[in-house]
Amino acid sequence: MLSFLVLPWIRRRAYELSTNMHICLGLSTIVVLWLHLRNRFHLDGYLLIGSIGLFFTTTLIRIAYQIYRNWRGLAVAEKTKKLEGAVMLSFSPTRPWKIRAGQYIYLRIPAVRLFSFAESHPMNILWWEESNTDRKTNYITVLAKVDTGFTRRLDSCQYNSLRIILDGPYGKPKDTGHYDSFVFIATGIGISAQLAYLKELIMGRDRGQRLRRVCLIWQVDEEGMFQQDTPQENCNLIPN
User: Fold this and answer.
1) N or C terminus: which one in the chain shows less Cβ crowding within 10 Å?
2) Distances from the Cα of 221 to the Cα of 32, 84, 85, 187, 209, angstroms
């Protein structure tokens, strides 16, 4: 019971520490199990060897994926807007792809602080712009909540242009083509996940998808989350 209370608290306040602790504990568990196996080359040992092989295979695939995304050169991200409690970055990926709502990426930003090149942080894809020819994105905006550690250092970083190492995209997009009415509810930074779906719905409408009504309800606790040009209406009615 204590672990269910302590581990989320550590994760919220020290994301990178929590991630590395999980990796170290997992590797330690494998080592201890191997040392305690009586028959290392029977069924139990083969299962453990298989799990080790699976771990290293997925790790190599992820490393290869990062190399594929960045081998043409590191993209340059710009801190575009100052928000209360959030940091926003915009960049042009060196290897574009077709973005879907619901996707997110991991970023490594070496210039933020010492050893930050080894820190990988998830960020929601807030908005993007597509090429008219192949519909691959040529400009991406991501958003992350400012907490302790890396994100706070990123928010207060003196540099507005930062080299990034891109990892992704990840996430499973949801198919919205079977519906014509939507209600989105978000609180604070959670709007980053909803806006991507709103953009995809509008793009689908322009391509002929039936869309009758979209309602967005967004609760914010800080006025700084609003931009000066943000409309006050929280529902957008689309006529038949």
Assistant:
1) N
2) 48, 10, 10, 8, 35
Give Cβ neighbours of residue 28 (< 8 Å, ≥ 6 apart): none
Tell me: the pLDDT tens digits for 4-57?
A: 566 666 666 666 667 777 778 888 888 888 888 877 788 888 888 888 889 889
pTM: 0.74
Helix or strand run (H / E) with residue 193: helix 191-206
Alpha-carbon distance of 196 to 214, in angstroms, equals 13
Query: Could you give the CA distance from residue 101 to residue 171 in angstroms, rounded to a whole number?
Result: 9
- Plot region of 126 (φ>0 → left; ψ -120 to 50 → alpha; else → beta): alpha
> Looking at residue 225, what DSSP letter applies?
G
CB-count exposure of residue 154 (10 Å: 0-12, 13-18, 19+):
buried
